[in-house]
Amino acid sequence: MDNVDLAVVGGGGAGSLVLAALDRHDLRGLRVAVVDPVRKRGQDRTWAFWGTPDAELEPMLSASWRRVEVTTPARRRMLDLAPLRYAMLRSGPLYARAAEAERRLGATRIDAAVDALDDDGAGVTVRDGDGAALLRARWVLDSRPRPPRRPGRTSWLQHFRGWWLESATPVFDPDRAVLMDFRTPQPARGVSFGYVLPVSDRYALVEYTEFSPARIDDAAYDAALRGYAALLGLDLGALTVREVEDGVIPMTDAPFARRPSARVVRLGTAGGATRPSTGFTFSAMRRQAEQVARAVAAGRAPVPRPAYPGRHLWMDAVALRAWDRGAVDGPQFFDRLFDRNPPERVLRFLDGATGVAEDLAVMRSSPLLPMTSAVAGDAAGRLRARLTAASGSRSRSRTDA
Questions:
Q1: 213 with 156: CB under 8 angstroms?
Q2: Cβ(324)–Cβ(370) under 8 Å?
Q3: How far is CA 123 from CA 18, 250, 377, in A?
Q4: Span 343-369, pLDDT tens digits
């Protein structure tokens, strides 16, 4: 059984970014292991994010845009994001970078599924489904999907299907992306929108997304995509669907256990990297990876900071409650958000990078009465949760006695 300093469990986006960050900090004396039953390669997903991509990330991007479009039934906005950019990264180049980092770090690779992480405080024994020990690590970074610590007061999903469309003639504008287009039919309980990420004038990802409590079936996704393509004026008969992307991301105010035991640290969605109000995850995963690598380089515990400020998570919980109860119309909410704030402020807020003064400005752009009601409802829900937890604790204490 190998003894290592750091075991990366899960080789998806979060694990790949950590390996790249460790390599970038030249931590090749570190004993690293990667444990995943699948060696990730190729294009199995697409991440979109905004920011200022660094020199390492830039060559991996499929495309980026300084202008994005936000469209509602009421109006169409073309937003200049300078100094930021909206960028698209497909998984293939990131997986290739992670594989290169593994080689440079001299990492041990174990192609096995992990069933248990036994943490005794001094180290962690990583076990497979049969209970056999795969390795022992001083620290484990676990990016496998995990449920939250407890159920949330509001639990929605961001679920989507996208078509990579290719045309024999120019039909897309490669100089701008459609960030959100709310002209799609809105679900009875939830928010829907389409978006377009063009790689060239002949190739683009066209996607339909819903924020709602549950997924829809395959036929409904395809019908929604056909309807959105018609809204865009695209003739599907003249286009070829080269790839199909599906996905589902949690949108919930439920808390995730970022550090479930002394020497196990969770990353990615399981570590709180997914923004509850939007489902965006990539930028927070990058921050987590960089913080882990810097900590290891400095001889500290590889524990990243919380992905988002507590006040942002509270604001997200309020927004989710307002949407869930139908108190706030989703397209109207985003229409006001972009109408009353500079686009850079909105994007930095959604990325968890704004200060208190900017957060207050964002709050003022929300519908006052419905959001005030949602704040009161959220506070009541939190109080009930605390009382329930306290009552359960007292009951357990009496039972133990």
A1: yes
A2: no
A3: 20, 31, 43
A4: 888 888 888 888 999 988 888 887 655
